[in-house]
Design a protein that fits this description.
heterodimer, A: alpha/beta, Rossmann fold, 4 domains, six-stranded mixed beta sheet, 34% helix, B: mainly alpha, two-stranded antiparallel ribbon, 67% helix, disordered C terminus
Chain lengths: 529, 350
């Protein structure tokens, strides 16, 4: 047993980059036995990457490993797979459940670690044919559930359980591992009801008393304050604050999470469109987009503005453009320039001169196996009959390769798309350049209203600036109204005129883009469910 | 970091290894031809003739591959439409070249109706098209095995001689449309024969498909196959485009079998359509197409290579090793090619 003075886990100078794009730098973190730390930060701050390094995720190795040291119990460790991490006593409960629906709680808790007994067949054919020792399994599962301190039915089949109990089953599974010393909980309360969440918090306290160290990741800051010993705030791949939980409050943490030290950057030209007419009004919109459910959104967009939509992941901000554009089942009323736009019909939106740059670039945004020419010209060709030559009185609509090449080359020049030629396949471009192709595709439609979803996700800093600049120029020069959805608050503050914050599937509030980060951050967390 | 490839490596990469092996094998057979006592002009004429019979059946694969429905293993369905056209044309008493036109005219509505139903089915099982297509082919053939017996055909040229009802397995086209295309502008130099009309007819249909793929709807079809979600986000009615591709494919198969019959000289009923799908599928794959990319050039190269091997192996190989290896080689080549293509869903070659 190590003494209380010696830390259980030490992470020293951890850094990580993905192909030259730095996501973590110089992270230092210590954790003692029985200590609970709350890890908070905006989406993309680097929390998950840090936890992946700690848990030995193979993805880290495939992308070139990490810098710095991970020291467990005074010894430096190098986990090459989660199995190593588990053997060393680290457990992790993921946001997504990894349970077998048709198995009972007990079976799931002890999966592949079942106590067994020998039988006649296994004597002959080997240990793989041993019989499960059900009595012993029950005992161990009960013990794990007792340790957790929340009562769940150990005979119930997972598929019949409420989500909360599934979450508890996962935790019990980690607890049933005897070597468990450190437990990582990645947003465990996101799916729990208030009562269940409280039970979980109580169980966290109980586990800590038994000497298990816990890293608790959540967006619910109140929980952190009530259960953690220390709060670690991450932003842009660095730890910006590491402080005892009893010396801070929600406001302060929010400020650390979203605030930036770089001053003077956020103050750009925020324009007021107070007098402008409403170009789009959304009433009682609901969208059934998995993981991004929109519950009840009412929103008006002024002509000529750039409206930002922000919010935490999973709160429904992505559902808004996807629902309006008909890519997911939606309901409600959308009125554009006085005309109602039918939902669930992509073609109608496009005919009304909307355009959409999807957050799912590779899945929705691009024809990966076709040339840039096709990618850029296709929607405009199909919707507006551009780049076509008509023969036989319009009966035959022939692809005008020359016009297609011209428009593609125009956008390659304008947006500085780096490619070998306009015939290159979209798959071969880098993420940033693919994003520019997506923008070019939307620009070629000459839309009146452009939805842009996560325009800078997964692209490097240089390309980010270019993409945002292109959007702004498009708005200023062509007078196109833009609705921009982004997880990065700072990006919205730089580019937009107003920012609507989505929380719990609803608009929590709309503020001018120069509002303080504290106010915006507070709105983000206001209705988190 | 990338290692510079040798010219041979590049050639293999551009042309595709299986296609290369098969081309070399075919060339070897042609070289061996005179040594085993076979007449080279006759052999080459044979390859050209068989190309003209089969080309359109292979071409029928193209629309469905483009729209992402995969290889049309349900080809027998289209073939059955063609057979209905052929038999009804004879039943109604058309003769000579007119019977060919009548067969096409009668086959067309059947192909449209069957194609619509087939396309509707394929739209409900996205992702498993080729599996379902195979079974559509199987079951339609079995159903028609019964129908050929039951349907009230009376033409003495087609029904069983003794009972006077039910269609025979093989029906001769003598006096109907035997060689009707092949004899048009036929070139004959000694043993060397070119069925110009058949080739022109294939060229005409190939040109139509090529042109279609350059139109707005054709472009949409390729995009649907390339990324259906992208197409939907661009306002395309994905199901309608897929349906269209299946109908086109089925119609081409119907026309294809009529062209095949005029060259072969017989209508083959009952289980015959069953054996038409796999050769057509493997031909287009040998030509360099993949499950989701196919060009007209793939069709032409593939049909020549496949039919070349089918015609050359009996004469050459049998003379060398004195056993009937041709069937074995044909089966290995066609099934092996399909297996190979299904394991790798990569980009096609040009």
């Amino acid at each position: 047993m190590s003494s209380m003075n010696e830390p259980l886990l030490e992470m020293k100078n951890i850094s990580k980059d993905f192909f030259g794009n730095s996501v973590l730098s110089d992270i230092n973190l210590t954790l003692r036995e029985g200590e609970v730390i709350g890890l908070v930060g905006e989406n993309g701050a680097g929390k998950s990457t840090l936890m992946r390094i700690l848990f030995g995720s193979t993805m880290i190795h495939e992308t070139g490993g990490y810098g710095g040291q991970v020291i467990l119990n005074g010894k430096e460790v190098h986990f090459s797979s989660p199995f190593d991490a588990i053997a060393a006593g680290i457990g992790m409960v993921h946001q997504e459940f990894s349970l077998i629906p048709g198995f009972t709680t007990t079976e799931n808790i002890l999966l592949n670690r079942e106590p067994v007994k020998k039988n006649l067949v296994s004597d002959i054919f080997g240990d793989r044919l041993n019989t499960l020792n059900r009595a012993e399994m029950d005992k161990r599962a009960s013990e794990a559930i007792r340790l957790m301190g929340v009562d769940i039915d150990k005979k119930m089949v997972i598929s019949n359980m409420p989500v909360g109990h599934k979450q508890f089953t996962e935790i019990a599974r980690e607890l049933s591992k005897e070597q468990l010393r450190l437990l990582i909980l990645d947003e465990p309360t996101a799916v729990l009801t208030e009562r269940e969440a409280e039970a979980l918090l109580a169980s966290i306290r109980g586990m800590a008393e038994r000497g298990i160290a816990i890293i608790f990741i959540t967006h619910r800051l109140q929980e952190i304050l009530s259960v953690c010993n220390r709060v670690v705030v991450m932003r842009d791949g660095v730890v910006v604050k590491d402080t005892p939980a009893d010396q801070t409050d929600v406001q302060q943490i929010t400020k650390w999470m979203v605030g930036r030290e770089v001053a003077g950057k956020a103050e750009t030209s925020v324009r007021s469109h107070e007098g402008a007419k409403d170009i789009l009004s959304i009433e009682k919109l609901w969208v059934d987009m998995p993981g991004e459910t929109v519950r009840n959104v009412n929103l008006t967009v002024k002509e000529g503005e750039i409206l930002g939509i922000g919010g935490l992941a999973g709160q429904g901000k992505l559902g808004i453009p996807n629902g309006i554009m008909g890519l997911y089942q939606a309901g409600g009323r959308v009125v554009f320039e006085g005309k109602e736009i039918p939902l669930n019909a992509p073609r109608k939106c496009l005919d009304a001169s909307f355009a959409f740059v999807s957050e799912d670039r590779r899945g929705v945004g691009l024809l990966l196996d076709e040339s840039l020419e096709w990618n850029i010209a296709f929607p405009a060709m199909q919707i507006q009959n551009k780049y076509l030559k008509k023969y036989l009185g319009g009966l035959v609509k022939w692809r005008d390769e020359k016009a297609i090449r011209e428009v593609t080359e125009k956008y390659i020049g304008e947006l500085a798309i780096r490619c070998t030629s306009s015939k290159q396949k979209a798959r071969e471009l880098s993420g940033g350049n693919q994003q520019k192709v997506c923008l070019a595709k939307a620009f070629a439609l000459n839309p009146r209203l452009l939805f842009v979803s996560e325009p800078t996700r997964g692209i490097d800093v240089g390309a980010k600036a270019l993409v945002l600049e292109a959007l702004r120029r498009f708005n200023r020069e062509s007078g196109v109204t833009i609705v921009m959805v982004s997880s990065e608050l700072e990006e919205l503050r730089q580019s937009c005129d107003r920012i609507a914050i989505v929380s719990g599937g609803r608009i929590a509030g709309i503020l001018p883009a120069n509002a303080s980060v504290e106010d915006l951050g507070e709105l983000m967390l206001s209705q988190v469910k | 970091m990338q290692k510079e490839k040798s010219w041979f490596g590049k050639l293999v990469e551009n042309y595709g290894l299986p296609r290369m092996i098969i081309t070399l094998f075919l060339l070897l057979l042609l070289v061996l031809c005179p040594f085993v006592g076979a007449d080279l002009p006759t052999q080459i004429s044979n390859i050209i003739a068989r190309f003209s019979w089969n080309g359109i059946l292979v071409l029928a694969m193209v629309p469905m591959v483009h729209s992402g429905c995969g290889l049309n293993f349900g080809l027998p369905l289209g073939i059955i439409s063609g057979l209905l056209g052929a038999t009804l044309s004879i039943e109604f008493g058309f003769t000579g070249p007119l019977s060919f036109l009548a067969a096409i005219a009668i086959a067309t509505p059947f192909a449209l109706i069957f194609g619509t139903g087939y396309g509707w089915l394929l739209n409900r099982i996205k992702g498993g098209e080729m599996m379902i297509a195979t079974y559509v082919g199987f079951s339609s053939v079995s159903l028609m095995c019964m129908m050929w017996l039951i349907l009230p055909y009376h033409s003495p040229n087609m029904v069983w001689g003794l009972s006077g009802k039910g269609l025979r397995t093989t029906i001769t086209l003598e006096g109907y449309y035997n060689q009707v295309l092949a004899n048009f502008l036929k070139i004959k130099i000694g043993n060397f024969v070119i069925p110009t009309g058949s080739l022109l007819f294939f060229a005409l249909l190939a040109l139509c498909i090529w042109a279609f793929l350059h139109t707005k709807t054709g472009t949409a079809m390729t995009a649907v196959g390339s990324n259906p979600v992208f197409a939907r986000a661009a306002g395309i009615n994905v199901d309608r485009i897929r349906l269209l591709s299946v109908i086109m494919s089925t119609w081409l198969a119907a026309i294809g079998i009529l062209v095949y019959e005029q060259g072969f000289g017989f209508i083959q009923l009952y289980m015959a359509p069953f054996y038409m799908a796999l050769p057509a599928v493997s031909a287009i794959l040998i030509g360099g197409a993949t499950v989701n990319k196919a060009t007209i050039l793939n069709v032409i190269i593939g049909t020549i290579l496949f039919q070349g091997i089918v015609t050359m192996t009996p004469t050459v190989m049998n003379n060398i090793i004195h056993t009937d290896m041709s069937e074995v080689i044909r089966i290995i080549a066609s099934n092996g090619m399909i297996l190979y293509a299904l394991t790798r869903k990569t980009e096609g070659s040009k």
